[in-house]
Task: structure prediction
Amino acid sequence: MSFVRVCGLSELTEDTPKRVELDGTPVSVVRTEGEVFAIHDICSHANVSLSEGEVEDCQIECWLHGSSFDLRTGKPSGLPATRPVPVYPVKIEGDDVLVSVTQES
Ligand code: FES
Result:
């Protein structure tokens, strides 16, 4: 599993997702509740960028139809999305946020 630096920790604003691309994979990086999460940036229901949605209670909401995805598991909490979105491991090293997208596709 190879971790790649995606941004600095100080570049992340609490509860404001940041969209990055890793090897062509769009990833939403979210700092919330004292942790940093990385979730695939495309909703499992349609081609919508999750990083444009709101973050609350460790979930990110798809702005189009309102499904929320758990940032820890990628599971949707309600319809219309029924499939999970991949989540990726995150490492913090000093001020560097590193993400690995090689495990999931
Ligand atoms: S596109 Fe995300 S819930 Fe419909």
User: Anything to note?
Assistant: The two ends are 13 Å apart (CA to CA).
